[in-house]
Amino acid sequence: MVVEQGAIGANARPGRTGRTVIYPAFARTGPQEPARGTKPVYLYLRLSKYHRDGADAIERQRIDLHRKLLADGGWTVMGEYIDNDSASSSAVRSRKAWRQLNNDIRSGLVKAVAFWKLDRTNRVASRCIEWIGECQRSGVYLVSHQDSAEELNTATAGAKLVMGIKALLAEVETDSMSERQLAAKRHLAEAGFHHGGTSPFGWKPGPRVTDHLGRSGVRLVPHPIEFPALRDAVTMVLAGKSLSAIGKYWKDRYEITTASGGFVYEASIYRSLVSPRMVGYRMRQVPEHQRGIKIDLLNHIALDATGNPVVSQEPVCDLVTWMRVRHLLEQARTSNVRKPWGSHEWLLTGLAFCQCGNRLYGHNKSRRNNHGERIQAYAYRCMANRNRGPGNCPGSCTVDAEKAEAFVLGWFFAQVTDESLANARARRRVGRTGSEAATILAELEQTKQERQALIRKQGSADYRGSMVTVLLQLIEDTQLRIEDLQRRLDVLALEEFPIRDGSGLVAAWPGLTIGEKRGYLRRLIHRIDALPGNAPSQDRLTITPVG
């Protein structure tokens, strides 16, 4: 089934959920000047935890405060400061209304504040008492629906003691709730249960079950559409496919799209594939993302009572395969040469040279055509002036990628004959020792045995608790060595030219991987020299065949 671009697929991912009501930090709700005979007062309303109740708690606080101020008399409500956040530590940083209220108090714009209860302002006792003191020094009158006005606005020792006790009790209550919640989540993680929130891509909540210790909860089970999509994505990454190709495949094959109907973002696909959930691990206390700070997710997997990783859901692939996928994706992200996961295959990388002697590297650049449409342009260009400073390359050569590749492939296919392939095989037999492949095979087999020995140590007494991360790193290092040896072995196999005739190579060319295509080009092409200027590619490129 094929879905047109822009159409919303049957399995569109939900958009980011938001508040039912989003409030500005400050809103003026009253007149510019208070009524005659009254004083201006500002409301501070705060919902400490969002319950998806349509902001009813904010409305209830507003109604109670308006009734109290009307009953007291002498007040005109001028405006409202509203925070609709949570009781978490991140909410403290995001309380925009609270910060603006205090700025306005310090600047003298606010001389009276009304709130529903003191713990709506702050639940840390020392900060709460400090804030009351600042208000008293600034001459700000405090009105509370639940607390005594005399205690809030009197600087006597007794009033300070009462307010201090109330603030301390609020802080103790918050700490107690936090401890209970953390303990509950720790047990949920240890049992492999899902504790709510958005389900990770690939799984969905299953039925409620009870473990052998009597703890009940919900475990994640494979999603009928997303789980197979992840398995296909693993196969595609190992085959060298791009993340953008995976997004297109998901839309065409599974109708998985974004909420707006577009392809799933490459960043979203990447996060799903590098997550330890792929091997069934249960994530625990993953830090909040910070720009420029890299987090190793293997350090944030849940551990059971014996210190072993908790496997809470069916894995997409085994540990070794996942580490290969993670390594390939990480290698692509950190490449300084080209954009491996982009939409263009840089066929001539390593073969094309500038007249200054430096290689030409792939470069992506968007531009607008005559109709104002933005299009993506691909080119090979010399980076000597950029990397080494001006003057290193007098010509600053740039060649259109598609035209240059078409010219080189035309030359290559014209040269691919049975005789040329036979000569290339003969050159390789002369230049290679017979023991090279045997040596690599022996080292590869030894490294695979080392990997299996490390995998068998999972769950042993030597690798528990924090040592689990060490073991996983050892396994990953071994896997990297295996991949390097396998690549060297593949090069030897490729150089044998498994396709024996020229017509067979031409017919099989579209199905070859980018690595195989480059390998065949290098068998017949020594180098490609490019000249600067705007002349056609055939006039600027000089191909030197292998001697």
UniProtKB/TrEMBL annotation:
It comes from the Bacteria. Residues 200-335 form the Recombinase domain. The keyword DNA-binding applies. Keywords: Coiled coil, DNA recombination, DNA-binding. One of its GO terms (molecular function) is DNA binding. SUPFAM superfamilies: Resolvase-like (SSF53041). Pfam families: Recombinase, Resolvase, Zn_ribbon_recom. Residues 437-495 form a coiled coil. This is Recombinase family protein.
